[in-house]
Amino acid sequence: MGYVDWEFAKTTGRTLVPAGPVVSPAEARAEVEAIREAARHARGPVAETARLQTPPDAPDALVVDRATWISVNADSMAALLDPAVEQIVAQRGVAPGATAQVVGGKVTGAEAGALLAFMASKVLGQYDIAPGGTPALLLVAPNLMATARELGVDPADFRRWVCMHEETHRVQFTANPWLRDHVVGEARRLAVDLAPDQERMQEIAARVTERLPELFSEGSTGIADLFTTPEQREQLARLTAVMSLLEGHADVVMDDVGPAHIPTVTEIRRRFTQRRKGAGAPDRLLRRLLGLEAKMRQYRDGAAFVRGVQDKVGVDGFNAVWSGPESLPLPREITDPEAWVRRVHG
C-alpha cells in the first residue's frame, strides 16, 4: 500500500467529475475521428513553424474522455510522486504504521481524486510525459466539444487550433529527449524539498489565518505559498520558468500556424482569451487557490519571452533554448528576454 491510494483517487475522480456534453453515439464517433484527423494534420505545420520535428514513428494522439484522462493522470502522478514520498520517509527515518498508512492513503487519494475531477472538466489536451511509462499526446473530446460550443466558434477550426498547441508540446519533448528527464527530475526534487517537517507544519498552522489573504493577491502562486520558504520559492520559480517557456512557446506556434491553416484563428484567440478572464467568482477563487491563475500568467509571460527572443535572434536563435538545461531561461529572464539572449548568444 502506498502513501497515496491512487486507485481510490481514480474512483473518487470518476465519481465527482461532471458529465460532458450529451451527444448520440454517432456524434461521439464523428467527434473522435475529427479530433484524430486534426491531430494528424497538426504535425507538418507545427514542425515547419517551430523548426522542430516529432519523430515519424511517434504514435497518434489518444482521444479520451474525462474518466480516462483522470486514470492516465493518476498513474503519472503516482510515478512522479511516489519515489519522492519514499525518499522523504527514508530521510526522516519514521514510517507510519500499517493502519495509519491505509487511512492516510485513502484521505490523500480522495484529495487527489477531487483535484483530478476538477481539472478533468477543464483540460482540452495534454502531452503526458508519463514518468516511468510511455509518453502520450492526449486530447479530451468532451471538453473540446463543450468549449467550442461555449465560445460559439467554428468546431473544426477550434479542433485544429488546440491540436497545434498540443502538438507543439509533443515536439518540444520528442525533439529534445533530455527535456523529459530534466522536468521529471526537477519536479521530484522540488516535491522532496517542499515537504514540510513536523516543526514546519506547526509553524504553518499557527500562521495560516494570518497568511491566508496572501493566497488571493495577484502575485500568489496558490496554496503552496503557505508551505514554502524563500529558498523553496526560488526553486519553484526555476521550474515555473521552464513551464512558462513550454506553454508560451506552444501558444506562439499555434497562433503563428493559424492564419495559413485556421481561417477563424483571430476570432478563436479573442474569444478564448476572454473566456480565461471571464470565469465566475467561485471558479476564480478555486483557480487561485490551486495556482491555476499563476498558470495563466505562464501563458502570457512565456509567449512574451518567446516573441522577444525571436524578435532579436529569429526562430533558429530561439531554438538554442533546447540545447540543454543550462540554456533554459532563468526566472528573471522570462520577463527580460534580452537577458537570455545576452547570456546564451553573447
- Rg for CA atoms: 21 Å
- Number of E strands: 3
The percent range for helix content is over 70%
Strand order within the widest beta sheet: 1-3-2
Secondary-structure-based class equals mainly alpha
Summed up, the helix count is 14
Give helix and strand order, one letter per element, not per position: HHEHHEEHHHHHHHHHH
Strand proportion, as a percent range, falls in under 5%
Query: What's the average pLDDT?
Result: 83
- Unreliable stretches (pLDDT < 50, length at least 5) are 99-103, 200-209
* Biggest beta-sheet profile: 3 strands, mixed
Counting structural domains, the number is: 1
- Mass-distribution shape: globular
> What is the straight-line distance between the termini?
52 Å
Structure description:
- The chain is mainly alpha-helical.
- It has one domain.
- It has 14 helices and 3 strands.
- Strands 1-3-2 form a 3-stranded mixed β-sheet, with helices on both faces.
- Helix 3 packs antiparallel against helix 4 (98-120).
- The longest helix has 32 residues, at 230-261.
- The protein is globular, with a radius of gyration of 21 Å.
- Residues 99-103 and 200-209 have low confidence and may be disordered.
Concise overview:
The chain has 346 residues and is mainly α. Helix content is 71%, strand content 3%.
SSE topology sketch:
Layout: H1 6-16, H2 25-50, E1 62-64, H3 66-92, H4 98-120, E2 125-128, E3 136-140, H5 141-151, H6 155-174, H7 178-194, H8 198-211, H9 230-261, H10 265-277, H11 281-290, H12 292-318, H13 331-334, H14 337-345
Parallel strand pairs: 1-3
Antiparallel strand pairs: 2-3
Helix pairs in contact: 1-3, 1-4, 2-6, 2-9, 3-4, 3-7, 5-6, 6-9, 7-9, 9-12, 12-14
